[in-house]
Structures are given as C-alpha cells and as structure tokens.
Write a structure and sequence with these properties.
The complex is a heterodimer. Chain A has a single domain, classed as Aldolase class I (TIM Barrel). In chain A, the strands form 2 sheets. In chain A, strands 1-4-5-6-7-8-9-10 form an 8-stranded parallel beta barrel, surrounded by 7 helices. A two-stranded antiparallel ribbon of chain A has the order 2-3. Helix content of chain A is 47%, strand content 13%. Chain A is built from 10 helices and 10 strands. Chain A is α/β, with parallel strands linked by helices. Chain B has one domain: TIM Barrel (Alpha-Beta Barrel). Classes of the chains: A alpha/beta, B alpha/beta. At the A-B interface, helix 6, helix 7 and helix 9 of A face helix 6, helix 7 and helix 9 of B.
Chain lengths: 304, 304
C-alpha cells in the first residue's frame, strides 16, 4: 500500500471550446492550481462536469492532466460511473496512465443494497490497484450512503481502500466511520469533501477536497492550514467565508463556478448541456455576491 | 433575563415504577445526581424523558419536582412542546408560575407549514411569557421542518429573551448557518448540540450540549467538554469516539436502552412506557457488556 496522503486537493474545472475539451486552457487551469498550492488534483469531479464527459474524453483528460502535471503533485482520478464494469475500465486506465489514486462514488441512478455497493467498490478498486477513496455524498445520490459497516467490509476485501471522502457533513456518520475503520486500519483517511473543515478536522479528517479552489484558493489554503494545526479559533474567520461561498456555489453548481472563474479573469468557456450558462444578469449578481465576501479581494485574478 | 447557557447540561429521563406510573422519589434523586455530577443546567422533559407519553398533568407535577430538587443550584428549563399548541402554552404558563428559569420548545409537530408559521409561533411563545426562550431544531425527526439562519436572526431581532437553540441536525452546514447568523446579533446566544457531539460543535463555536449519556457517564461527558474548551483535541477525540459508540447503543428506541444502561450503573429508573419497548434482560446484558468494554463501568459513579 502506498503512503499516499490526500492533503489539500483541488477539483479543477473542465474548460470547453467549440463543444470539445479546451486543452490549451486546461493547461492553464492545471498550472493555476499548482501555483496556488494545490497538494493534489482530483479530476474530473462534479465541479469538472465529470458526468457530462464521455468515457473516451475522461480517459484522454486523465492522460493529458497526468502528463502535464508531470509528477509535480499527485493526480487522483474520479472513476465514478453507474455500471461497475464501466467504472472498472476507467480505473484500470487511470493506473496505466500514471494516476496516484482513485475516487469513486456510489453508482449513479441505481440504489443497490449495501452488499452490492461493497462489491461495486471492491471490483473497481481491484481493477485499479491504486489507493482507493470512496466518495460519500448521499444528497447527490438518492440518499444512498456507504454505511459504516460496509466500510469495514470493504477494508477486508480491498487492501488499497485508503479512505472516505465525506460530503454528507453528517457528524454521526463521520465519527462512526473513523471509529470503526481506524479500529481495523489505523491510517484510514477521512477527507472532507467540501470546505467545512473545522468540524471535519476536529472529528479527524486529514484531507480536504475543494471545488471552491477555482475561485478562492488562498482562502481554502488558509482554512486548511489552520485546521491541520487544530487552531479552530483562528479558522473561524476563513470558515465563515468558505461557508458563504459553499452555499452560493452549491446552488449554482459548475455553471456558477464557471461564471465566477470568468469574472475573475479565467474564462473556461460555457458548461456543457444540460447545465445552463448563467445569463449575464445572473452572472453579474453572482459576481457581486462573491466580491462581497471579504477574503475574495485577495484572491488571484487571471491565470497568475 | 440574563441567562447564559454553556457546558454539559442534563435532560433527565423520567423514572417510572413497574406499573408505569411516575416514580417521583427516584426522579428527585436522579435530578440531584445530575446536579452533583456537574450538570450546568437541567432541562426536562425532552423526548428522552418520554415527553409524549406523559399527560399534561404529569408533566406539570414532575416539572415542579425537578424545579424543587434543583433548588436554584443551576438553571432549570422546562420543555413545553406538545402536539397541541394549547397544551404548550398551558405548560409554559405553569412553568413560569412554578419558578422555572427558562422554557424550551421545538418547531410544532406533525404538520407541514411554511417558515413564517415557525416565526409566528415562536414570537407568540416568546412574547407571552416573561421567561428566557430556547428553541429546538431537529430537522431529521420533523421531516425537514427546521430553523434556518435567516429565521433565527429574525427571531433574535424580535425577541430579547431568545437566548439559545438546541440543535440536533448533527450537520456542519446547518449548525454553522444558524450559529453565524445568531452570534453577531446576540454574542451570548448559545448553540447547544442535541446530544454529545461536542467535538464538531464546540470547534465551530458551540456552547455545550444537552446530554444523552449523562445518567450513565457524567465524567466522560465533562471530560469531552473540558478538553474541547481547552483545545486538547486528541483527548477530545478519544472521549468523543467513545460517546459516539454509546449514542449508537442508546439511539435506537431511545430512551429504552438508556434506561437499561441505568440498571447497570446502579441507578435503576424503571421501564419505558409503550409504544416504546422496555429493554429486555438480554438487551440489558448486551448493554452491560458494551459498558464494560468501553471502560464506563470502571470509570463512572455507581449508584446514586
């Protein structure tokens, strides 16, 4: 098992032009995140419109990113899919392409029993043979949660199962998972899948996966660093700004993130259908709300 | 009207005799036990006190017993929520007459109603009595009926006696939204977590908890709170993980198993009223095994 630690990982946007992935811009996106102190890149996440990419595009995107990053930071590939075999082929490909780790959510659309979720993850994880992270986000997946007893079962079946990325924000769940998982594997990682890092960090999360990093990389770095040294009093101020931004973008999704990135001088094109491109007035209103968040003034403009 | 709540507050269960009638004598002892073992406030009857299974007359007479037993050593709040709001107002009137220090109320039960109805109800409750008011938010039990930050802020602006909230979403976003809306308007506003999830709540700025396991392990509850306040996060995590295991033991058919656990600790409080089950002898044996495994039997007071 590799000693990969999740750290502060950014989830980049996927730029499009003329209906295709815009690789020239993607190069700039990747460099932007690395300059702004990402310890890893996870792609394509929902913020990167993973579900709107074809399997071939996902593979090409992974290859491109891994090549361009060239070992500067770990690249973690999201292999979430509806079907187990389809996800497994993404995961086998990611390994060949040189990814460092894998992320996988419960299947799209289906609501299988827990035993099948364990099988789903075990199969996909084995196909990849890389450190494997389960993404738990019940509100995005018909309330399907990867139960703590299933976490333990998967630990028994998949030696590479390295941790859980939580987006539920649910204290009962997170504590249950770290308690039962660390009893079996003391270095099991809990990763906060969004920017509520104080409570997750107090509970024992050691990593953070951030979509807000496309807009506020300095803020998420400050929040993460303070939480890693457990200075939660000092982390309160950045946590407040992160909470405001989190709620703004939860409603607006990748459409909002792309509008905001554009307003900050990083045009990544329009989101793919069926996601809407924010109309100018809505984009301006969003930009105003974002600029009212104190810490945003210090954030980088353009690709710097 | 200056009542500032913090620390580990206890909401006692309701001791019953074998014929399910209230056991006043044991109730007095239990309340006294909580105060002697460090409760910073007493609040009764929360749902764990089987509030819904008590008649209004029983609630009044037991409430008087609680107030007398505490004898002003710590503040006493009376939980006035009932299915019919007429009963709620009757209970609140009675609480005020008998010398309670505050009242606490959940969002009204059963019906689906708009946020404005919550606002109107709490304004009426808060302006009808000359007592501090604590609100109680439990979205998962009340099917999504809940306080938002905005609603909380409006009530704080309207009600000078609105001093705090029992918050039982156990969710980082929901808890923090209410907290960050409330505290700029009333710095002493107490965010009190519903059971002992003190680690993720105090790190976010929470004031304390209404205890679940306080009748079983008051020392552990206080150790958790004090280590959170001191910023001793490693110690806090160890205590929180243990308390979380206890909560998993007690939460099903709450408070049946909790009452079962009281037997093991030498503080029997009798059966649980139907439709809730009373812990069977086998269940009590299982609870005993867990309490021994978790080191509770050896580290916590036995008997009264």
């Amino acid at each position: 098992m590799s000693d990969f630690r999740f750290g502060l990982t950014h989830a980049p946007l996927t730029p499009f032009a003329d209906g295709r992935i815009d690789y020239d811009t993607y190069r700039k996106v990747i460099d932007f995140h690395l300059r702004n102190r990402a310890e890893g890149l996870a792609l394509p996440m929902h913020a990167g419109e993973s579900v709107s990419l074809s399997a071939e595009e996902r593979k090409a995107l992974a290859e491109f990113a891994i090549k361009h990053v060239a070992g500067r930071v770990p690249v973690i590939i999201n292999v979430s899919e509806a079907g187990t075999a389809i996800a497994s082929s993404l995961s086998a490909h990611a390994r060949k392409a040189g990814a460092t780790a894998l992320i996988c959510s419960v299947p799209y659309y289906w609501t299988p029993p827990q035993s099948m979720l364990v099988e789903h993850f075990a199969t996909i994880g084995q196909a990849g043979g890389l450190p494997f992270f389960v993404l738990n986000s019940p509100s995005e997946f018909s309330e399907v949660e990867f139960a703590s007893k299933s976490v333990v079962e998967l630990l028994g079946k998949l030696p590479h199962f390295a941790g859980l990325i939580d987006m539920s924000l649910d204290w009962q769940y997170m504590i249950e998972v770290v308690t039962v998982a660390r009893a079996v594997r003391p270095d099991f990682q809990l990763v906060s899948g969004n920017e509520y890092m104080i409570s997750a960090g107090a509970i024992g999360a050691t990593g953070m996966l951030s979509s807000l990093a496309s807009v506020s990389p300095k803020l998420v770095r400050e929040l993460y660093d303070l939480c890693r040294v457990q200075d939660y009093k000092a982390a309160r101020a950045p946590q407040e700004d992160a909470a405001i931004l989190f709620r703004l973008f939860r409603d607006a999704g990748p459409s909002g993130l792309k509008a905001a990135a554009k307003a900050m001088g990083r045009d990544c094109g329009a989101p793919r259908q069926p996601l809407p491109t924010l109309p100018d007035a809505a984009a301006r209103a969003l930009a105003t709300k974002i600029s009212n968040v104190g810490s945003v003034k210090a954030e980088p403009r353009g690709w710097a | 009207m200056t009542l500032v709540l913090k620390g580990v507050m206890q909401s006692p269960v309701t001791p019953l005799k074998n014929d399910f009638s209230p056991d006043y004598e044991t109730f007095e002892r239990l309340v006294d036990f909580h105060v002697r073992t460090g409760a910073t406030a007493i609040s009764w009857p929360h749902h764990k006190a089987e509030s819904h299974n008590l008649t209004i007359a029983e609630r009044k007479s037991l409430g008087e017993v609680a107030i007398k037993a505490v004898n002003k050593r710590v503040p006493v709040s009376i939980h006035v929520s009932a299915l019919a709001l007429e009963d709620t107002f009757d209970l609140a009137r009675h609480a005020q007459k008998k010398g309670a220090d505050a009242i606490i109320a959940i969002t009204p039960y059963f019906w689906k109603y708009p946020p404005e109805a919550i606002y109107d109800y709490f304004v009426k409750l808060g302006t009808s009595f000359d007592l501090p008011l604590i609100a109680y938010n439990s979205p998962s039990y009340l099917d999504g009926i809940e306080f938002t930050g905005e609603l909380t802020a409006r009530l704080i602006q309207r009600l000078p006696n609105f001093i705090g909230m029992k918050e039982a979403s156990f969710n980082s976003e929901k808890f923090f939204e209410i907290l960050r809306a409330a505290q700029p308007l009333r710095s002493t506003f107490a965010m009190i977590v519903g059971v002992e999830y003190l680690l993720p709540s105090v790190s976010l700025g929470g004031a304390g908890s209404y205890s679940s396991a306080g009748a079983i392990c008051p020392n552990l509850c206080i150790e958790l709170y004090e280590s959170c306040v001191a910023g001793d996060w490693d110690r806090a995590r160890a205590a929180q993980y243990k308390l979380s295991e206890l909560w998993l033991l007690f939460r099903d058919q709450y408070p049946s198993s909790l009452k079962g656990g009281c037997v093991i600790m030498g503080r029997p409080v009798g059966p649980t009223r139907p439709p809730l089950p009373t812990a069977s002898p086998e269940r009590v044996k299982f609870i005993e095994k867990r309490l021994i495994e978790l080191g509770i039997v050896d580290s916590e007071p036995h008997g009264w």
